[in-house]
Structures are given as C-alpha cells and as structure tokens.
C-alpha cells in the first residue's frame, strides 16, 4: 500500500458518486483529496489517524477513511457504492473519452455493463444517437479500448523494480541459493514490463520452489516449456525464475538478458561456454554492451563505432530543471525545493511552475511571476554558489503561441514549452502547434513532446524527425521527462537527437522535493537510448548552463 494506492481509492469513490448521480460537491471534494494525496511528500502509511489529521488538507473524516483503506482496501461509503455497481461498469471508468457521468448514462440507457459490451455497441454505431455523444466520441472510445487491451497485463518499470527488489532480497536469504540476479526485460530496464525475471544459481531447484511456495503462501510454481518456473508475487506481480548451476550462470545470464535479435547480432550460440559477459563480447570483437542497450536495434554497430564510451550516469547530472513549487501545483515551497536540491549535491535548480492558462494547476499570473522572481533573487543570495534559475512551464496554446506576452517571457532565464490541453490531436494539428512553439525565440526546452502517459494515454502523434530537426534549427533542447509514467521523449529517438546535436534535458517534472529521485528513471531510459554525457543539457555545470541560457536569450 502506498499514497498512490490511497489516492486511487479516493478517486474511485469520487467517480462512483458521479456515476450514480449523487452529491456533486462531495465528488469534487474527494477528487481534490485524491489529487493532493497523490502529490503529497509525506508517507501516510505509518501514520495514525490522529497524526494524519494534522496533515494539511486532511481532516478527521478523511483520515478515518484513509486508515480504513490501509487496513481493508476500502471504506464503508465506497463499499456500498461498489456493491451497487457491476464490476464491468467499474472497469468502464478506465476508458478515456468518457467520464463517470457518461459511463452511468451508457449503463442506464443502453444497459452496457462491460468494456466488451461497450466496444460491441460502438461497432454497431449505437452511441451516435445518444444525447451527449457523437461519432467523434464513439471513435475515441474505440481507440481507447484498443489501447487498454493492448496494454493489459503490463506494468511500469518503477513499480516492478520496487517489488522485485524486495523479492530479490528474500531470495538471497535462502540457504539453497548461491547467487540470484535480475534478468530479461527487468535487467534491460524496459519502461514497460510484463513480468519480473530472475536467474537463480542453485543445486536444489525443487527445494527452492517449495520454500518460495511456503514463504509466500503459494500452492505451487507453474512449470513452463522454457524450463522456467512462473508464479505471482503479492497477488499482482508475475515472476519467472530460471535455474542454473554455477558453471552455467554467465551463459544463462547472457542468454536470458538480451532479446533474440540482440543475441543473433552478437553471434550467441546456446551451446557456447561463457566465462563472463565481458569476455564473450571481447571474443566476439565487440566492445561490452550494457544490459539496457541489448534490444537488437543499432547497438552492435554503435558499440563498434565507439558511440557508447561516455554514456550518461546519474552522477553526471549537475542540476534539475523543470520543477514545480507551491506557487502552482507543487507540494513544497520554493525554498524547500531549493534547499533539498542543494542537499542532494546539485549545483542548480530550474523552477518551472505552470503558466497562467493552466488555471487547473494554479498557473502563475504576471503578478505571481514577479513575486516568485523576487523570492528567487533572495534565495540566490542566501544559497550561493547554488543557484535557482527563473523558469516557467509555458502552456503551448492552441495556435502554438506561448502563454504571456514577450515582455514577460523575456524575464525568465529559461522556458519549458509544453502542451497540456486539447491533447487529442491528429498529427496534422499537433505538428503546426509544436513547430510554432519551437520557433518562438523564448522557447528553451520542448517539454514532454508527445504528452504520453505510459499505460494510460498514448500521446498525440508527431513526426519525430521534423520536431527534432526544428529543435536543431532553432537552438531548442528536448526534454526526456523522467517521471516513470512519462519517459517522454521516447528513448528510441535519442540517437537522432545526438545525430542532430540537439541537447536532451533529463527533467524530473518534480511536484514535490522527493520527485528529484525520478531522475534515476530518466537516466535508465537515456542509457537505453545511448545518450552520452556530451548531449545531456543538465550534465554541464553551473557556469555552462548559465552560458547556455544566456546564449538562448541573446
């Protein structure tokens, strides 16, 4: 159980209130509570009801419901609504393009009680004549259901890694285990995974199986034709275990880490003796390729060409750009964000609160911009040589222009230009909008270029080459948003950024100070794309980034 889980239960309660046409005010109140807890920098799990009541924004009633969620994964009011709602209707709330009220309308007026029935109704064109719906909505629903089905049974790397680390430590405590390591997609740090894979060195695989079954209350492992064993951990995480004995560990590790295309590229044979992975690549005449890169793309040729000699590492990052404070929708004050960044060893912090059009996120009026700039000046005097840069995450408006007139934009050290509204664009609409923003002389960084949310929203379609070309022509950097639900720009396009000499800024998009730690996920994705320190914008020190911002402003 985490704060995110608590937020999800509160959001579900808000949605069910709307779905059943109940108290609108209460629905909005719980939606807001869900949002606040999702962004909260304090772990609620170990707190008592009395302690939670003291947290800003959490009163007695909400604290009691949170406490119930922690112990029963529900609370009485939510349970009553769940009892009145078919499970399939609850699943329909996941479909993008229709809110809870419309889901309720589909349930009551068309009798639809599952995602499958909804898709069938769309295919029969039954939604078009329904009040509040239309052909565009029907098409959007079909697309959304297709996205849900394609991503069923998949998980974010961040979620899998956390649970898998717990399991790895359990395995290492088993007496019959000599060695155990991550392998497969988990070792390659793929952004989306279907399972956690482990390679276990042991002479007692049967004993291992029985011990795990007893330890985690499992009936048995499921043996599969691959020679691996499969089980579910914590009732949600699919796990696969490969067994081997000591002389064969390195060969099995190499075989189960890279995908088939990569193994073919490096000339791997199943019957070959592998002393070590490093030695195997050396004997094959290929510089060592780190696990993250073993995707069967251009990695073998790039390694031979010496393109992976200086891959970005977390320790290389000198500053964090694109962050939010209480001035907009962040959870911590500007000072708290700055002090924490300094404590983490960074040389600079780039604040980029939301611009005024983002009213839903407390976007800054011109007066609030000026107030923040005064506070930044004061902080810079106190925290020197650490520096806070004056930035803004400017909404890219519908016509591609930035939020604020030029005289206000000119007061920022840097501008992150991002799309936040009207996300359901075709490529024909998205491209002119983004290109105009890139061509704006005040744009410094193009933020999360496709607006995707992994496993939730595919993002609007763009021509990646044209966008990167435009950034190259206009001296604009591209963001690799490090939030594990975004990781946007997709790592598969980093090679083209480097080819066009477009700097990539690994940004946490932190809405609380702990969000800086998401830089780790950004670096994982960056290394998968072969990003080097040379082309990472925030791998330069304070002097270098100051010159870059100054040069952009002319």
Describe it for me?
By secondary structure, the chain is an alpha/beta fold. The protein folds into three domains: 3-150, DNA polymerase, domain 1, CATH 1.10.150.110; 155-304, 2-Layer Sandwich (Beta Polymerase, domain 2), CATH 3.30.460; 314-553, Metal-dependent hydrolases (TIM Barrel), CATH 3.20.20. The protein has helices at 3-19, 24-39, 49-53, 60-72, 76-84, 87-92, 100-110, 115-123, 135-150, 157-172, 184-187, 205-215, 249-257, 260-265, 277-283, 299-304, 334-343, 366-383, 406-409, 427-439, 464-474, 494-499, 519-528, 542-553; strands at 155-156, 179-183, 192-193, 196-201, 222-223, 228-233, 237-244, 319-323, 348-354, 387-395, 414-418, 445-446, 477-481, 504-507. The chain has a seven-stranded parallel β-sheet. Helix 20 (427-439) links the parallel strand 11 (414-418) and strand 12. The two termini are 50 Å apart. The model has no long low-confidence stretch (mean pLDDT 93).
